[in-house]
């Protein structure tokens, strides 16, 4: 039994049982992982580190696929088993070409266990001025900001619709795809490409936003139409009442 609630889709494993009961460095990963987007999506210790999540005695045996802790130069391949497109973009980039020679790896920017859903806040002076002037980071961020604002605005509208019981599945899917394309853009760290691709994405996002605006307008019209029906029914009831009185 675990002494803590499991987030989202995560399952109880011997890895979690044993590591959460430890006091040394082995226990440090558990808490940050619990609050991560990986835990929320059911990606657990063994999905990254390998090993046997059901057999405590052999859990960390290489024969059961245990990979251990990756060396710095192995991190992109380690994360890239799942994030294939991003791994490829990264490896081609100025950052990837500097792997092992002072360039950042995935965990430099995202962490290893406390990984969160990404936002542009990841590009900030503190983490991007460690190795070179912040200016080049600021330029790429500026190119991405408008797209980010559009995505956030659409997400907020969708959240409101959902609260009102509107079916948003199709829009959710389109936004998900556009959001992925957009967030993937970063890893090439190529400011010119980000600027060009962002312009295209903003066009697509604009269309999506218009579709949602139309739904909003239709709903407003329906509310007015609804009010008319109610008013008409009231008038009819009143007339009927008066008519009956005159007949009496
Ligand atoms: C019965 C207890 C136990 C189980 C089960 C267990 N571990 Fe461990 N694990 C440990 C201990 C003890 C260490 C050493 C920790 C330390 O250095 O303090 C460790 C270390 C590790 C390390 C670091 C290894 C290194 O080279 O530094 C990783 C990664 C790890 N475990 C992952 C897992 C995964 C994944 C599973 C499940 C498939 C798992 N563990 C299951 C007890 C366990
Ligand atoms: C998203 C993939 C991922 C998941 C999930 C994950 N780890 Fe790790 N873990 C890593 C990476 C990458 C490193 C190496 C970190 C570095 O190089 O800074 C690491 C390092 C470690 C270490 C070595 C000490 C340290 O903190 O650097 C231990 C112990 C460990 N992980 C245990 C666990 C346990 C236990 C779980 C489940 C609660 C877990 N990990 C879940 C990717 C993951
Ligand atoms: C076993 C597969 C797997 C491994 C290995 C893995 N991830 Fe993930 N990762 C996922 C899944 C599934 C999600 C949640 C769904 C999504 O956003 O794609 C996710 C989400 C993320 C997100 C948030 C994406 C967003 O939409 O905001 C980041 C950042 C991330 N992972 C980075 C990493 C890093 C860094 C590593 C290596 C330390 C790693 N991942 C290893 C499967 C994996
Ligand atoms: C661990 C060191 C390190 C960190 C942290 C780092 N970079 Fe870099 N960055 C490099 C290296 C090394 C290069 C390639 C050599 C050079 O141009 O100086 C580079 C190059 C770049 C380039 C130019 C790419 C090109 O093709 O000319 C941009 C843009 C960039 N980084 C943005 C960022 C952003 C944004 C962050 C923060 C999210 C960041 N960097 C964090 C090391 C780092
Ligand atoms: C220099 C810092 C830096 C490095 C190195 C880096 N990332 Fe990212 N990553 C970011 C930033 C910044 C974003 C989000 C930008 C945005 O808001 O679009 C991001 C976005 C992501 C996302 C979300 C994209 C999506 O499709 O939803 C994932 C997943 C991810 N990174 C995984 C990785 C993996 C795996 C590696 C290593 C191969 C890696 N990152 C290397 C900074 C970095």
Automatic annotation (TrEMBL):
Lineage top rank: taxon: Bacteria
Sections of the chain in a coiled coil: 137-164
Domain Tetrahaem cytochrome residues, every copy: 37-132
Keyword annotations of the record: Coiled coil, Electron transport, Heme, Iron, Membrane, Metal-binding, Signal, Transmembrane, Transmembrane helix, Transport
Cofactor: heme c
Subcellular location as annotated: Cell envelope
TM stretches of this protein: 224-243
Protein name in UniProt: Cytochrome c3 family protein
């Amino acid at each position: 039994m675990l002494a803590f609630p499991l987030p989202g889709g995560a399952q109880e494993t011997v890895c979690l049982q044993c590591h959460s009961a430890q006091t040394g460095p082995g226990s440090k990963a558990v808490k940050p992982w619990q609050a991560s987007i990986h835990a929320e999506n059911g990606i657990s210790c063994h999905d990254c580190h390998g090993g046997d999540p059901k057999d405590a005695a052999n859990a960390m045996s290489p024969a059961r696929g245990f990979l251990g802790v990756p060396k710095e130069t192995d991190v992109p391949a380690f994360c890239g088993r799942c994030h294939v497109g991003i791994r490829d973009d990264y490896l081609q980039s100025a950052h990837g070409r500097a792997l092992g020679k002072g360039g950042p790896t995935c965990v430099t920017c995202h962490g290893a266990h406390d990984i969160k859903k990404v936002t542009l806040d990841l590009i900030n002076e503190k983490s991007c001025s460690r190795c070179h002037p912040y200016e080049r980071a600021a330029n790429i961020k500026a190119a991405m900001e408008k797209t980010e604002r559009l995505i956030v605005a659409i997400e907020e509208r969708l959240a409101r619709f959902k609260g009102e019981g509107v079916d948003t599945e199709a829009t959710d899917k389109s936004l998900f795809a556009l959001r992925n394309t957009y967030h993937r853009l970063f890893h090439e760290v190529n400011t010119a490409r980000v600027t060009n691709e962002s312009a295209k994405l903003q066009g697509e996002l604009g269309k999506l936003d218009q579709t949602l605006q139309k739904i909003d307008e239709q709903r407003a019209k329906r509310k007015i139409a609804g009010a008319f029906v109610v008013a008409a029914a009231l008038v009819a009831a009143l007339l009927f009442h008066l008519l009956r009185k005159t007949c009496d």
